[in-house]
Amino acid sequence: METQLPTTAHAEWSQQQKLWSTLTLVLIFFASATVTVAYLSHVSVSPDSQTATAATISDSFSAISLTAESAFVVDLTTNGILYARNPDAQLPLASLTKVPMALVVSEVLTPESIITVPEHNTPDGAPVRLPTGLQLRVDDLLDFSLVASSNEGSDILSNAAHPELSRKYPEADRNATTLWRMNDLAKHLGLTQTYFLNIHGLDVSTTQAGAYGSARDMARLFAYAASTSPWVFEHTSRDTLSITALDGTVITAKNTDDALSAIPGLILGKTGFTDLAGGNLAVVFEVGPAHPIVAVVLHSTADGRFKDMKELVAAVQAAIAERQY
């Protein structure tokens, strides 16, 4: 006997199918002069599948024990949900917020555009790493902000993008155009549990986070980011990064993702940590040629998020090797 979805649920499901089916991507990776081409296509994640777990699909996930309160893993070539733990719980996002920030900024700032660093304070009180007057290319500043998870870089990018975003979106909040567009993007992507209160994800107070969302929403967002703006995120797979200002000043960054070595074919990765969020980590990676996977863990611990992700990645690899799905 076939169970019919309620009309509203069916409509939402159809809308999400249409959205995910548009996420088609050619991703280029260079490793020992070999080019790997991957496609994210026909991805759909049902809102009614939140109780599904990988154990029902693959024995490889049955022994997993995560610290994270929420996790979600999707095979983007088959639309299969490989693992789900509280995927629709609305939780603080911390620096996962920098991914939509980067998407929004890159709408109006070209990679080769030059930003002159204005006089500024860091939003988190950290030492200034980008001195006033330094001139940097947009793509370098994006790389630095994402790889080092720099709140300072994120603020500079957001402010630089403000005039052009205001022109592109005249209906936007005049005082916070980048933030407005981030929320507008979340709405258009159907991220029903996601909203942003600032552009970097820092906690607003001891009781209010700077951004909220679900693991399912983050899976959709990260798949979209990888599919539409690969140049923005290509260096998130690097362990260290050096950027050079126009005057020759070199600034180095260490990747905040301690799980890098355990993630094959990383396309996009972003960490997040605040007191309210705990440890977050979301990645898009290739488990094999043209076989992308998205995995998200939310509200783990500073170290637990890396352990959690390594377990999920290993389970995906085992399932593929054993052809369990």
Descriptive account of the structure:
- By secondary structure, the chain is α+β, with helices and mostly antiparallel strands.
- It has a single domain (45-321), classed as 3-Layer(aba) Sandwich (Beta-lactamase).
- Helices cover 31% and strands 23% of the residues.
- The chain has eight helices and 14 strands.
- The chain has helices at residues 7-21, 98-108, 138-147, 151-168, 177-188, 215-228, 230-233, 304-321, and strands spanning 27-31, 34-38, 70-75, 81-85, 91-92, 114-116, 135-137, 195-196, 211-213, 240-244, 250-254, 266-274, 278-288, 291-300.
- It has a five-stranded antiparallel sheet, with helices on both faces. The chain has a three-stranded antiparallel sheet with strand order 5-9-8. A two-stranded antiparallel ribbon has the order 1-2.
- A hairpin with a 3-residue loop joins strand 12 (266-274) and strand 13.
- Helix 4 (151-168) crosses helix 5 (177-188).
- The radius of gyration is 19 Å and the shape is globular.
- It starts with 6 loop residues before the first helix and ends with a helix.
- The model is unreliable at 1-14 and 24-56 (pLDDT under 50).
